[in-house]
Amino acid sequence: QSALTQPRSVSGSPGQSVTISCSGTSNDVGAYASVSWYRQHPGEAPKLIIYAVNKRPSGVPDRFSGSKSGNAASLTISGLQAEDEADYYCCSYTGAYTLVFGGGTKVTVL
Amino acid sequence: QVQLVQSGAEVKKPGASVKVSCKASGYIFSSYAMHWVRQAPGQRLEWMGWIHAGDGNAKYSQNFQGRVTITRDTSASTAYMELSSLRSEDTAVYYCAREPFLEWLLDSWGQGTLVTVSS
Fold first, then answer.
1. CA atoms within 13 A on the CB side of B30
2. DSSP character for A16?
3. A91 and B107 in contact by Cβ < 8 A?
4. A89–B44 CB contact, under 8 Å
5. How far apart are the CA of B46 and the nearest CA of chain A, in angstroms?
6. DSSP strand pairing (A105-109 vs A9-12)
7. Is the model's pLDDT at B101 over the cut of 90?
8. Are A55 and A33 in contact (CB under 8 A)?
9. Which range among A73-82, B16-25, B57-66 shows the weakest confidence by mean pLDDT?
10. Does A88 touch chain B (CB under 8 A)?
11. Shortest CA distance from B106: residue in chain A
């Protein structure tokens, strides 16, 4: 199973919005509404920020939103803050009870 | 609150095996699945497999088929991941992560266990 495709990096100034894309295939992202996103600060474990394409766990600010169109999903961070500087990973169910992660995107707050 | 506490760092020689544990607390262990994800230094997250803590059924990534075994001990609320035939490329931080069964989201993560493979 190949990794989902994400841009290596994106950047934005505080208060701006950034969008991270996650490209898959008709066998994973395109086939299931089971895309999740994780944020990982250096030296820490990942943290779930979006699940089921566009749902936020309790405690995750509404600045984070997710969407999907065809074989691609995306994560938008609105009102960028310094604490949002981290690595972000998408993840999709691929059928047959397996998961696949994306390559990860480094978000830099300028 | 939900907690996943993993065993400590390991150093292994090429060809050896390693077994990492993940002790769960704060929820009903057997009602959830436990996944294992690894991250080589500076690299992406890589999904390895999962186990249903209730019935013990496990599923593995094809990338690790034959080398990884995930088990659990419900009496100890602990999941285990054993990786065999270690090579230098297996040097990574290994995470366990909880999944509400068949929801395909990882809502709580362990702190990670560094496994170093070196001769």
1. 7
2. -
3. no
4. yes
5. 6
6. parallel
7. no
8. no
9. B57-66
10. no
11. A48
Where chain A has pLDDT below 70, the residues are none
- Do A31 and A95 contact (CB within 8 A), yes or no? yes
Burial of B60-93, coded b for 16+ CB within 10 Å and e otherwise, reads bbeebeebbbbebeeeebbbbbebeebeeebbbb
Contact B110/A45, CB-based, under 8 Å? yes
- For residue B51, pLDDT over 80 is answered with yes
**pLDDT at B32 (0 to 100):** 97
Residue A100 sits at the chain B interface (C-beta within 8 Å): yes
Q: How far apart are CA B93 and CA A17, in angstroms?
A: 31
Of the partner residues A1, A48, A97, the one whose CB lies closest to the CB of residue B62: A1
Mean pLDDT of B78-98: 98
